[in-house]
Amino acid sequence: xxxxxxxxxxxxxxxxxxxxxxxxxxxxxxxxAQLAQDLATRARVADNVGFNSMWVPDHYFQxxxxxxxxxxMLEGYSVLSFLAAHTSRIRLGTxxxxxxxxxxxxLAKIVTTLDVLSGGRANFGIGAAWNETESRGLGVPFPxxxxxxxxxxxxxxxxxxxxSDDEKPWTGMHYQLDRPMNSPQCISRPHPPxxxxxxxxxxxxxxxxxxxxxxxxxxxxxxxxxxxxxRAHCETVGRDYDDIEKTTMYGVxxxxxxxxxxQVSDALGxxxxxxxxxVIVTVNGGLDELETMGDRVIPAIADL
Length: 304
Prior knowledge:
The chain is built from 9 helices and 11 strands. It has 304 residues and is α/β, with parallel strands linked by helices. A 9-stranded parallel β-sheet has the order 3-2-1-11-10-9-8-5-4, covered by helices on one side. A two-stranded antiparallel ribbon has the order 6-7. The chain starts with 17 loop residues before the first strand and ends in a 7-residue tail after the last helix.
């Protein structure tokens, strides 16, 4: 399996707690005509001030926690390809792709394309999916949860097969590939780091132990218990628990003049005490908020 620092190998070495950024909404002043410029500018700032990674939602409709379904929502991998051209260091991934959104062979090609065009900066975020409303809305089949987990494991196996240059036919319960060829091959070797989102103890965390380089757990006091479950799964499958990057989410509110920076730093410290090594934050403000994160928060977490 991959060494621990693979997932965040290009992060400045003086920082222990890693920070990622995820825009919670694509609604910007000026509307869609200004969205490309706004998103590119914010991504460049995040790239420059020390964020390790940038993650975008992979949904068809806006999700309820962020706004009504009618709010603007862009296709995830198109956004990441656009951002690859406007950044140079920051890693890029979806948080996270629903397993039923794309055929696994096509998904492996899409992630590989992002990795090649970004110079080896792709992360592969995936999960069992949950938003039935958006799938039904666009006519995308939404299998039962048990089947989605089956498809998730098969998808992970297929992607790893395609990233390994093994072109032998692949046959599973839900997918059959006559020739899982992947050319060009990804730049990240042995493959783009895999992050599995979700906290399910019986299935999700087992898949993390067996296939992933990182987990993304729902925030809350339950995190230490979830990590104990993950550790047990690692022991069962013979995986080194320390090889897996532990990540979670956090919604940041810096205040109108950055007066809450210390509170944010303290909250990140709490995540570190829970065992988190990386936190993906949503910062809904403009450039000032991202710059303040770089000036006052990212350096403050160096000792976590």
